Amino acid sequence: MAEEQERRPAGELEASVLAALWAAETPLTPGEVQRALADGLARTTVTTILTRLHAKGTVTRDRAGRGYAYRPAQDAHGLTARRMHAELDKDEDRGTVLARFVSELSSEDEQMLRALLDGGDGDGGDSGTEGGTGSGDRGGTGR
Question: pTM of the entire structure?
Answer without folding.
Answer: 0.66
